[in-house]
Amino acid sequence: MNQQEWNKGLYVNGEWLTLAETIPVQNPATREVIGSVPDGSVKEAKLAVDAAHKAFEAWSKTTAYERAALLERWHQVIESRLDEIAFVMTMEQGKPLAEAKGEVQYANSYIKWYAEEAKRIYGETIPASSGSKRILVQKQPVGVVAAITPWNFPAAMITRKIAPALAAGCTTVTKPAEQTPLTALLLAECAHEAGIPAGVINIVTTSKAGEVVDVWLDDSRVKKLTFTGSTPVGKLLMRKAADTVKKISLELGGLAPFIVAEDANIEAAVKGLIQSKFRNAGQTCICANRIYVHEAVKESFLQALTQAVEALRVGKGTEDKVEIGPLIDDRAVQKVQHQIDDAIAKGATLHGSPVVEGSTGYFMKPVVLSGVTDDMVCMQEETFGPIAPVSTFTDDQEVIQRANATPYGLAAYVFTQSLTKAFYFSENLEYGIVGVNDGGPSVAQAPFGGMKESGLGREGSHHGLEEYLEVKYISLQFV
Ligand SMILES: NC(=O)c1ccc[n+]([C@@H]2O[C@H](COP(=O)([O-])OP(=O)(O)OC[C@H]3O[C@@H](n4cnc5c(N)ncnc54)[C@H](O)[C@@H]3O)[C@@H](O)[C@H]2O)c1
Ligand SMILES: O=C[C@H](O)CS(=O)(=O)O
């Protein structure tokens, strides 16, 4: 992309708008400004709802097959621009290019999945208790959807919302994270190129998140809020959405326990932990956050884990074979460093050093902490960084109680070779997602979401489509 292309307009009603006020986009690996996007405000927020509301009239009347064909076309266009989108994602979010390509494909798999699911929005007929009546149940699109998304998966968190919304016949207004707007606008470019009509997808980039989202929450034409981000912000938006009784979906914070049972395959457990813990430099909502290893296998596990962590390559996402990119900003680095300092102060042992000598970006080397206890901050708060805190246990029931002792309930992991243990753990862990011998459970065909304060609703699978549908009951009486 040439320099001009790094300065993009926001996308409303099928047009690209530029504003005098802009937001700089920073490369977290170099701290350099690589581009800019418009700093949208109340005016652009209202324009977006106007466009989505107007487009809903026609879009909601299209057939499932017409919507499916356009989603399929969008999928094809993204596929054709995969390398470009991945490169831009690496430049604005920092993840290694290989991971960015993986995310674009993962994001695109939701579009593919919902292109197919659009044709399977079934209703039902129910036997009536009166011979003169017939009972029909229809599914109809909820209407205009407001989507708010985070920076850690700049593509997937957007398509995981927009694809089912469009499949259901809804139209959308989206506010991407201020740190990663370019990927969102590239997805909109692909949708525009695919022929998705003006007003069906609207992207408002802004540094004034509260102002823009408040416009959408206050507007009764917006029927649904779907939010992915931190639990505190999710609670705030949930309260505000109540004023107009909007349908809501929340994908919030996690604090994933990763349990290595006495009979675990240690090699598989270490491989699964590396996959879960260090993906996106530890900046995912389902990263292993608390590692519990059975006392009987602690030494062999720790030795294998520290060797594997030491071998991980840290660097810019554009450099070959890099596995760990930078964190998103300096605040993230400070938060992770605080958790390391707190753990050491409370008696943990640090294996390795987080310091990257002479780095220009927000880099931290992955480290392991052993001798960790539940009173340490890294075992109580989402880390969102490359720390692997290892605690031990002796009794399965005890470790399940410890794993469940948190307001969060998004993802959990257990490694065991026993079918009995696999079911005992997975059925007693209070989490929406349980990986059994699997450190990477996320796929479009499965329902992704949390229990407790990790969220409401599900994304992916046919469950994810229901979030954008109203159920209408038609009672038909013969007269
Ligand atoms: N459960 C999931 O699927 C999932 C996926 C990705 C990230 N997350 C969570 O997201 C968090 C990291 O992402 P983040 O730092 O972008 O979260 P965040 O909550 O700070 O921001 C998320 C989005 O909300 C917007 N926002 C922030 N404050 C707002 C306000 N007052 N009003 C309206 N909008 C506001 C931001 O601009 C951004 O677009 C972590 O807690 C992570 O666990 C969860
Ligand atoms: O960070 C949270 C994402 O939802 C993780 S995943 O990409 O869905 O695995």
UniProtKB/TrEMBL annotation:
CDD domains: ALDH_F5_SSADH_GabD
Molecular function terms, GO-annotated: succinate-semialdehyde dehydrogenase (NAD+) activity
Catalytic residues, chain numbering: 251
Enzyme Commission number, as recorded: 1.2.1.16
Domain Aldehyde dehydrogenase: from-to ranges: 21-474
Keyword Ubl conjugation: no
Name recorded for this polypeptide: Succinate-semialdehyde dehydrogenase
Taxonomic source organism: Brevibacillus reuszeri
